[in-house]
Specification:
8 helices; binds adenosine-5'-triphosphate; 10 strands; Rossmann fold; binds magnesium ion
Length: 240
């Protein structure tokens, strides 16, 4: 009990990453607490998406360690281990939502699970759609839904398997203020349920609602502001 509650969910230690000669992270050290809501800010090209890919188990750092719940993510188990890690722990909302145009809203939500070998209780898709207010668009195709609905479809898909960590890449990039407020409410609700959230964003509004804002610049990260967050009273999400 003690170690799992006091240890951060995520620890990055001396992380280095480069795309060829383009260095993105130089000895990055960073922790994310259980049940915290963090925003990663920084100019275009500063490495926000790259950091989320590393956290999601999609992009191996050149050097350094990534510990998730005390265990090495890019350890000795290779792609098989990473696949398991992603399936159990990660929900990812991509920058452009990445919905498949030939599938309906509810088929898009269900799609990644089809290939994961996990049996999906029928009502889970319906529950997620209702919670995010898109159930009435279940049979619509992505070309016929709004930006906000597309984003909530991507979010429903990311949340389907109850991941403890939700990574969001500019979730409100193309949305108007009202939709932005609605998504901030959803994110805060998820935090209350015990999820840990890391969100790349330029939005001042989303930053105000987060516990902590980090600025990425020239391979370094600095903390801009801290709002004390508490996981007391919120269920700590079970780590598988
Ligand atoms: N696969 C790749 N190969 C080479 N360079 C890449 C690759 N992906 C990203 N980059 C470069 O790495 C840098 C960081 O990219 P990243 O996508 O992480 O930035 P970002 O902060 O998310 O930017 P944005 O705000 O525009 O989404 C950029 O200069 C980008 O051009
Ligand atoms: Mg990006």
């Amino acid at each position: 009990m003690k170690s799992s509650m006091t240890k951060p969910l995520i620890e990055l230690k001396n992380l280095n990453f480069a795309y060829g000669k383009r260095r993105i992270f130089d000895n990055l050290n960073l922790t994310f607490e259980h049940g915290s809501f963090s925003v990663i800010a920084g100019e275009s090209g500063s490495g926000k998406s790259t950091l989320l890919y590393i956290l999601g188990g999609f992009q191996k750092p050149a050097r350094g360690e990534y510990l998730f719940s005390g265990k090495r993510v890019y350890g000795p188990f290779g792609e098989f281990g990473l696949g398991r890690f992603r399936k159990k722990n990660i929900g990812f909302l991509f920058q452009d939502f990445r919905l498949l145009p030939f599938l309906t809203v509810q088929q898009n939500i269900r799609f990644p699970v089809l290939f994961s070998g996990v049996r999906l209780p029928e009502k889970k898709v319906q529950e997620q759609m209702e919670r995010l207010g898109i159930a009435h668009r279940a049979e619509a195709y992505p070309t016929a839904i709004s930006g906000g609905e597309a984003q909530r479809t991507g979010l429903a898909r990311a949340l389907l398997m109850n991941p403890p960590l939700l990574l969001l890449d500019e979730p409100t990039g193309n949305l108007d203020g009202i939709t932005e407020h609605a998504i901030a409410d959803v994110l805060e609700g998820l935090k209350k349920e015990g999820l840990t959230l890391v969100c790349a964003s330029h939005s001042n509004y989303i930053m105000q609602r987060a516990d902590r804002v980090y600025d990425l610049k020239d391979g370094n990260i600095t903390v801009r502001g801290t709002r004390s967050h508490t996981v007391k009273g919120a269920a700590q999400k079970k780590i598988l």
